[in-house]
Amino acid sequence: MKTAEELTNNLIAQEPFVQLLRQFKLKVTQPRLSVLDIISKKKSAISQPELEKLLGNQIDRVTLYRVLANFEEKGILHKIFDLQGTATYALCSTSCTEHAHHDQHVHFICSICNSIYCLDEIALPQLNIPANFQLNAIAVNAVGICEQCQQKK
Ligand SMILES: [Zn+2]
Ligand SMILES: [Zn+2]
Ligand SMILES: [Zn+2]
Asked: Domain of 64?
C-alpha cells in the first residue's frame, strides 16, 4: 500500500507528462504516463523488450506497442534502429509534430553495449539530393564506444 504522501508525490512527478499528453491532445492514461516516465529517465534510447522488462506486468504487450506507435505518430518519440536492427525509441525534440519529425541529429551507437544516444547538438550535413528524389529524412549513425564502456576497459 502506498501512503497518501507517496501518491501525491507520484502525481506531482507525473505533472510534466500530463501536460505533454494534453499538448498533443492525447488522453492521459497510466500506460502512457509510465512509458514517458521511463523514457525520460533513461539517457539512451530504449527498445520495446527493454520497456517490457521495466514495466513488468503493468502494461500488456499490445498496449505498449500501441502507446509507442501512437507516440511516434504524434511526434513525441522517434525511432532509431540499433546495430541488430531492433527499433529503439527516444524522446523527440520539441519541434516535432504529428507526421513531421524534425529530429535531425546524429545518433551515437555503442558497439559494445548497443546503447543509442541522441547527439542533439550535432547538426546533420546538408546533402544535395538530386531534384527527382523527394527527401523525407536523413539518418546518420556514429558507431563507437560509449563513455561507460570506455571506463570498463
Ligand atoms: Zn521527432
Ligand atoms: Zn557502451
Ligand atoms: Zn534522436
From this structure: 4-152
